Amino acid sequence: MKSVFARLASDFLSTIVFLVVYLATDNVLIATAIAIVGAIAQVVYARVKGPGYMTWASLGLVIVLGGATLLTNDPRFVLAKPAIGHIAIGAIMLKRGWMLRYLPPIVTETIPGYATLAGYAWAGLMFILAAGTIAIAATGDMKLWAFYVSVVLLGAKIAAFAIQYVAFRFLVGNRLRAAARA
Q1: More confident residue, 144 or 14
Q2: Has this prediction a pTM greater than 0.85?
């Protein structure tokens, strides 16, 4: 679980850096420039280990969207970056059964259909969060965007995880009790 969060932090490092610098300086251009430099430094560091696809994709997005923000002095470009990540992750989550490999055997053996359905629900959540990110980015309101990416995006995922955990425990428990009675 710890490696999952470390990987997510690495994949969204430029967004995190942008948000922290913006909140500290209240300057979109400085935050964008530092996020671009940070993304480049991340790739240079990863070259030692061999950067993954997400590292290269993140660098490309930061340079293109950050460059557009710097050239136009319009923060909406860089603010849309998290939406692109959510759309990509949502598209990957549309693969049937993707979630099964992340679940304990008792879940995959007892309620595999529900696990597959939950995988599609996660994909839907990613698309909804991406749409919200784009809508917030389109306003150009930095404070609203900062709240959305730091509270709403994270909170929605934590809530979805909690709901899924409780639902799976309930469903597995019911199936096991029913099997014991049969």
Answers
A1: 144
A2: no
